[in-house]
Amino acid sequence: MDYLHWGELVAPQDHTGGGQSCWSGQRIGGQGISLDDIDGGIMVQEVAHCQGLVWVGPHANPADHPHSATRNILMWPGQLMVNFRNRQDYGDVWSVMNGILERWDDQLMMEGFEWNRLRGIFLGSDPCGGGGCAQAASLGTNDQRFFLSGTMDPQDHWTTDLSMIITAPVPLPPTPPQGEYAVVVLNNSNTELARWPFDVSFAVTHGEPPPFVSFDFIVPYPQGAAAVRVVHGSTVLAELHPPAQGPSVAFQSVTADSTAVDARWTASHPNGAPLTYSLYFSPDDGATRMPIATALTTTSYLWPTALAQGTTQARLIVVASDGFHTAEATSSRFSIPRKPPVAAISAPVVVRNQAHGTAATDAGIAPQHIITGTIVPQTLIASQPLYLRGSGYDLNDGLLDGQNLRWASSVQGPLGIGQELTVRLQPGIHTLVLQAISSAGLIGSDSITVTVLADGDGDSLPDVYEQAHACLNANAADDTAADQDRDGLNASAEYQWGTDPCVADTDGDGYGDGAEVEAGSNPLDRNSVPLPPLAQAPAPLRFGGCGLLPPPAAQIIPLTTTVAYSVTTDAPWLTASPNPDGSLHVTASCQGVPGDAAGAILLTAAGRQPLRIAVLLEFGKERVYLPAVLSN
Questions:
Q1: Which domains does the chain have, with CATH numbers?
Q2: How many whole angstroms separate alpha carbon 257 and alpha carbon 264?
Q3: Structure pTM?
Q4: What 3-state DSSP class applies to 561?
Q5: Which of 611, 625, 630, 585 is CA-nearest to residue 520?
Q6: Rounded to whole angstroms, how far apart are CA atoms 198 and 64?
Q7: CB 345 within 8 A of CB 391
Q8: What HEC string does 312-338 produce?
Q9: Which range among 198-207, 440-449, 596-605 shows the weakest confidence by mean pLDDT?
């Protein structure tokens, strides 16, 4: 961001039901944010949109432009991705650039091409990475810029909120290639010196169309400029002319207490031009500044300081603008008291019911909630280690390190120090408290309440669960690995899935619990049954012959199937394609493979279970004997 901090990062509007950003050339990231559980993902998506991401691309969704068509980013079947932050394994993550963010966990990811493109945008090597702009010719660093911020309604009424000349060298964004509208800079002879095209659209991705759309422009302002117009074709919607002289401004009073700062100033203009004001806060006696409010039309402002860092060197800076010329004033020094830091516990997670947003617990049987395939425990077991993760943030210190984070339990007392801990808790109801301590000694805290169930035999099954099922023994530690009902799930898996360890088909749909888990259907829902198999799974394939032996020959795999299927592989040396008779043609190449390698083939078809075929490429290890020729 430059000195102006163009655009808004968060701009809540009631007419939207989610995130919205940067349509019609706007620079707003995160419009419609409601501060709920998925807002972090929405913010990432909207800011990425503002950078031009996913306007085009290999997975762009033509029906929901400019979002990605990818929903869940699947790990390769049978493989798990380790989340190194919470030390848990996941079989899939949600695509953050999809148009619908509905994952309630913290597993969001960009696809590789998206990240590479966004990185190029930030580094400048791909400034139009999403296809949403065209690279403009670079201008000299001494060229002035003109900042124009305003709104347009459906009747083509333009309202200027804030404008000014920028004399400091500010980078120009790429010039849009075309547009029905434009910001035009003219000289005294009405000759165009610069043109900045744009388009206006009131189409929305969420909710009702807005009453107006907002724009922020930074355009060239060459020597000799005398007017700035906003035009639609040949129609002039607004025209701004620089006054002959500039404004003056001075602080009248700045009154600070523990919660707010009341700032008042006076301003005038020799030509009587209307003025707008921007107010900035400096925590370091004027060395740096950050915006508080812009486009003010009054000469006072009450600033709540709840999110301002504590300082004894605080100053305010007010900038007055007549639309072109600016003047500024700096207040006298004042103090803002420091606040306690913020502490946040992120693990264990208190999972809420997705439909109603309420806490859900089941102290006895089936303590889980399934969200897009992820099982989230609701209660804890005394015999199992508990992973704790938390963080602390102080407005002055920033992110607090582990030495300033302390954990305690209402039952066991102090648990340890650090961002992450692994502990064992006694049976009972615990209030877990995380304290964050700032360099000033101020303390902030967060707490959660967890129920820890007794496990007398230490088999990771709570006593109350084993006592509720006649096929289990609360005093025998070896029954957790047994499959009492012979459905393919041991007692530990039955507990995690919430199925009955004594009944092979918990939901009574005719399919065993283990078969449903393996096939991906829900063993707790009789209306959810496994899809039919695509074909009978063949044995793993082996290709030998690399190295000293002849290269491996292609293999034909007969498959008994009546449906058309698609084929993908996970290794560059492995190729596969379907034959007209339904069989599978598989080839392996030794080129570029340093040694033995493993790969897999995935077959998919609508309404059928995916089929995975393991493949092993082996290098020859047989000895080759060559004749020896001896000579004198």
A1: 248-336 (2.60.40.10), 342-453 (2.60.40.10), 463-519 (no CATH), 541-619 (2.60.40.10)
A2: 15
A3: 0.61
A4: coil
A5: 611
A6: 22
A7: no
A8: EEEEEEEEEECCCCEEEEECCCEEECC
A9: 198-207
